[in-house]
Amino acid sequence: MREALFLLADLWMIFVGYFYGWKFIRRYGNYLLGLELMVVATSGSNFLLWSLLSGDSGSPMYAIAYFFDAFSRSVGITLILIMGLMKVTHRYKPSVGVDVAVFGVAVVAGLFLRPFHGADLHTGGSAFWVAVFYVVVNLLTAVFLGYFVKRLWDAGARWPAIWTGLVTAAGTTIAITYDFFPLPFDDANRTIFYTAALATWGTQGFVYFRAYRALHERNATLDAAPARATETLA
Known about the structure:
Layout: H1 2-28, H2 31-53, H3 60-89, H4 96-113, H5 126-154, H6 158-180, H7 191-233
Helix pairs in contact: 1-2, 1-7, 2-3, 3-4, 3-5, 5-6, 6-7
């Protein structure tokens, strides 16, 4: 039963990542959010294949999984997420060069931080401080998302605001639990934790897309108002 729920959670995250990632690009031209969601989906696909085919820590897919993990936890679902959402909160329109540069930074961060996990996590070594870094950047991102929730609420998008707040709180809980507070009732593979994490990350993509859409439509309405007023006066 646990394994089935794990697979469903991973498939949910993969679906959300590819489906809504493509929607972000196709509908809104938002490559930051679109490509990052696709990175998350690709990470989930790699994790799924690794789990089904081997589960061996010596597999190349195991190393790739930690690269994607470091990519998204350091820059992807932090800086890239904030920059992508700023398109509807601040009318921010990054150039192609900025898009390429920030993903380049994420790749470098993923490659550099990938090896720092596990062994010395609870002895104050490098892995410990990398884990602290992941939590800190997640909390800073949550602060921005709190502002994003306020913008949604002020725009009259009450339910998107509530769901965004709830899923952000869940994501932060996962981030804090990830390295520092393993579930005592979980198995050696942390199946329960990863099931909750994958389901949460997938739901974040689902909810953030709808919240983004709500603010985008609100902005479009505000932009159209002066034009309608001018037509009326004419």
